Amino acid sequence: MNIIVCAKQVPDMSEAKMDRETNTIIREGVSSIINPYDIHAIEEALRLKESTGGSVTILSMGIPDVAKMLRCILAMGADRAVLLTDRAFAGSDTLATSFALSKAVEKIGNFDLIMCGKQTIDGDTAQVGPEMAEKLGIPHVTNVVDITETDEEFIVCKKAIEKGWEVVRVSLPALITVEKDINTPRFPTIKGIRNMSNSEIKVWSSRDINADPGRIGLKGSPTQVVRTFIPPVKAAAETITGTPEEQAEKLISILNGMHIHIGNDKG
Amino acid sequence: LEEKMQEYLFRNITAEYEDYLRDESRKTGKADTISFPRSEKDIIDIMKQLRKGEKVTVQGARTGITAGAVPDSGHIISLEKMDAILALRYDEKLDCNILKVHPGALLTNIWKSVKKDCPDFFFPPDPTEITASIGGMVACNASGARSFFYGPTRNYIEALRIVMYDGSVIHLKRGIHKADGYQFRLQTDTGRVIKGKIPRYAMPRVKNASGYYAEKDMDLIDLFIGSEGTFGIISEAELRLIRRHRHTWGGLFFFGDEESALEFVKAVRRDNQPGESEYGSGSGLASEHGSGHGPEYGSGFAPEHGSGHGPEYGSGFAPEHGSGLGPEHGSGLASEHGSGHGSEHGSGLAPGYASAKIKPVAIEYFDGNSLDILRIQKETCSAFQSIPDIAKEYRAAIYVEFDDDSEQVLTESLIEASNRAVYCGGSEEDTWVAITQQQMDKLKTFRHAVPEAVNTLIDQRKKEHPGITKLGTDMAVPDEKLVEVIRMYKQDLADNNFESAMFGHIGNNHVHVNILPRNMEEYGRGKQLYAKWASKVVSMGGTVSAEHGIGKLKTDFLELMYGSDGINEMKALRDLFDPYRMINKGNLFKEQGDVL
Predict the structure, then answer these.
(1) Which of A36, A75, A185 sits opposite B433 (nearest CB)?
(2) What pLDDT, in 10s, does the model give residues A41-65?
(3) pTM for the complete prediction?
(4) What distance in Å separates the CA atoms of residue A129 and residue A122, rounded to the nearest whole number?
(5) pLDDT in tens, A7-19
(6) Three-class HEC string of B34-54
(7) CB pairs < 8 Å spanning A and B
(8) Which helix (H) or strand (E) holds A141?
């Protein structure tokens, strides 16, 4: 199975702080990491490749520095990497990004499956994956927690929904976005770092993928951020008093009031 | 006024202050009063207020595990409020930055401050416990995994201010105050002259945190570092920051048996090691010692140290900078590589083996039982689920870490380490490599999980058998005794049918053997075994404590190591600085009147 995995470099949100004036992320001095969900997509792609053969190509869009991140992914065992980098891409919203990525996918060609993380931790939109699938005219499944069956023509995925799972059979080529629960990512291996030093990273500009200049970057981004704000935290604490038994009783009734059922095995 | 000061500084021990009666050793002591000085002046005032002979226990962050900060009576001086990071300056002569701090500054805050204000430099000591205070780290000469390359805290202390029992202050600067042979003379700011003799005992030629540092012509600041607070109270320290490498990468190598893992340890550290002959020759101790910073760090490497820094760093070389090796080093390597006769490793190495040199900064060990503990933890604790499964055939793992500016060099180092691992029976496919911060953090979670799991297990067993405490060793032996000592541990653990876990700083032949007693009978036998190991290790030329210190828990072992003569020399020295035996009495040696 030939798989393309989309990966994004994001600021390490555990370090990042919000600018209280502009309500945007302060990116200065914050280190960059691979979007955590994407690592799980990479891992799943590598596992599929190991069981079915084929190849894994990593696709990313960003500043030239992202090549470093791509090298680290090659060390996990991916076969090749493509980086879209061009000033013309700057300011892309999810629509423009998914357009550019889908053009790159067309150029890579010959794929069975595209995998993305469920969402990125900086934008949190979860839109780019599904939008790419629409542009490419292929089916997609989001929030995948397991791939239970693979075939030349289709895969069967288990997808997390609000109160359980859905099992979806989807014909290939397709795009899926994955949850963290899907696997435990591997560490790079020695073979991987040998691979890393020998593999080349393809760097493509907007021209290389024949992207219509009106559909990328700021021009191709209709999204207007009207307002961003930090939601007020409404925290109120209630102190429960009494004997331990009384406290437990009160706590149970509060939780029941919140429709949280406390199991009682004694029935 | 005096009364006011008394009120401001001295507080009675009430329930509020109970935490100050214990430290991470989980031992609890007693005290009458406690103070929280905010300046050196406060410390001086406190010392002047105390009755001559009143016991004073000095505390940093109480993260030590040998009860060094546990009081047995009298007064407690907690330095936790004296935690300021005072000043940063560039020292042209040393070509490095110097950070001046108060003793209560926590390691984690020192690192944060350096990262912010001086991002190209760092303070290397890393004893894992990052909430340790710098005063505590200096007092017990803390080290840790990366001290394999960087050496212990000692190597990064440039100056100390120490308040004596009488409120006078000694200001020590590295390179300024030195012993003349075995004689020394120091003067306090009040003009009190302290004259005396450096002990003549020979320190073991291994990583060591047991007893006073003592050698001919020594820098006197080294007398205070690792003295476990028995001479005076550190009121200020100047730390040497060295240039940071841009990248740190690590590899975890798995082995089917422990003997193969030990072979790999020898193979992976050989480029760091000076030739054994240097230590073997009788001249070693006396003459070499003068020029080496403790044997284990004779190979040590404070690269930026270079000139103007006194002989104790003279032998340091700068492998990663590629500049010349010390002469003794060059010859050591040559003989080792040339004839391959070193007992450390056999001949017949794989092609290309000897060509690429690698310089790990840390070499850590996990035995089969440690891996089993992790396997169980992974099943039961969600925090460890980010760690991949460890194939069940593996019975030992070695973690190797490298620092460099060049990703190329790091890649080559890991590949070369892997070649050596494969040669020793390891597997290339199953090696875990960390090349990003995210991956390094994950490996760190793995490495810290074992000691945490051991502590949890002990706490569980303590509930049923309250007398049980952790039985974890901290001994190190010379390089050539590595296999012998590990075999001894394994055999004795098996003979006693003990549950155990063994892990730690194997690059320095320094592993923590943890006996996990299931009942009081086993606990008793475990303690006996511990004592037996201590005397065996001493007879191998090793140390009873390589990094935790002696504190109040291992005083018998220190005597085992240096004999009563050595202990008497130490006591005599202490009596010069603190004739009323007030400060941190009970640490290092037990004396009349000590309760704990």
Answers:
(1) A75
(2) 999 999 999 999 999 999 999 999 9
(3) 0.84
(4) 15
(5) 999 988 777 777 7
(6) EECCCCHHHHHHHHHHCCCCC
(7) 62
(8) strand A140-150
